[in-house]
Amino acid sequence: MTGTAPGGDWRERLDRALDTSNRAGAAATIEHAIRPALTQFTQELESRGQTANVTEEHLEGEALPCLTLQVDLGEAASFVYQVCPHRMRTPSFLPADDDYYVRLDVYLAEGGLEKDLNGFTRGQVIADVLSEYERHLHFLALAGQGGYVQAMPGSVGEPPQDANPA
């Protein structure tokens, strides 16, 4: 499953859905979109007093790096946005010049998103990071101090206990 990048023409989305990028195409996306987007996002957070960094590491047997953006939120759970390359066998139903292609999969601290950033622009990557960051901050706000859920109020469809006046 490919990612649905915000904005852009529907034909661009179709191109991404049918994309079977080779290592060079994935490397170009990392170099021109993902790395600069994560760096720019980190710099903006730091200019606003947040502690953030981008790190790179190579997985065994993979020439392309995994890039990880981490934002330290003090006592609350850190925000983590990671993009890792994965070599995949090209599905038989897609036209391709090679038996393998490279996905650029997104992972959060909570797990994988089944989102491939191949073909995303810098602006689209920043928009995706920002959406996930906003979602993380919203969760922390709902969870309360420290970012950990203590207990869920009632069952689905049940009003909160103090909603019914005595």
TrEMBL record:
Superkingdom as given in the UniProt entry: Bacteria
Name used for this protein in its record: High-affinity choline transport protein
Higher taxonomy: Bacteria, Pseudomonadati, Pseudomonadota, Gammaproteobacteria, Oceanospirillales
Gene: betT_2
